[in-house]
Amino acid sequence: MPSPTSKTAKAGQRSDPLTRAHKYWRGEHLGIDEDSFIAMTSVLRLHRLMTTNIEAELKRHDIKLTDFMLLVTLEMSDNHTRSVSRLAKSLLVHPTTATVATDRLEARGLLVRTPHPSDRRATLVTITEEGRDLLQRASAVLDAVEYGLPGASPAERAALVDAIDAVRAAAGD
């Protein structure tokens, strides 16, 4: 049987991009750390596939992925409240992105802003009941599509988290 990258592969048979990347890397002698390149490519491809799947599902609830993650972060926070700057750090987004998402969610009544009691420069954001309701509906939708990891077993998900946790820790997260 021909390999997935073979030109004689059957019509309709998918060619694995990482198999092609391995072959190209070796053929072109692009560097000594092929495994790191392939790992990076694999993670970035998975990220894109997951994000595309998740965003399509959330769009049906008129919510963006950043908005969903912001609401999740608020729901899990003490008193369901955080400053906008702390939200930006938690979500790994630029403060302007957090502010724009906050504007969008506040306009829909999904959160409220209040002045920080001791820092005049800071604004606190709190999830509302409407925000919790939307978060529950959106979470159920994402649960149905296995949060962008369709077909992965619980053991595979756990192994993925463990592997990524080790790399994140080494990267300073």
UniProtKB/TrEMBL annotation:
Pfam families: MarR
InterPro entries noted in UniProt: HTH_MarR-typ, MarR/SlyA-like, WH-like_DNA-bd_sf, WH_DNA-bd_sf
Domain (HTH marR-type) ranges: 33-169
Region entry Disordered, spans: 1-20
UniProt xrefs under SUPFAM superfamilies: Winged helix' DNA-binding domain (SSF46785)
Protein name: MarR family transcriptional regulator
Organism annotation: Sporichthya brevicatena
Taxonomic placement: Bacteria, Bacillati, Actinomycetota, Actinomycetes, Sporichthyales
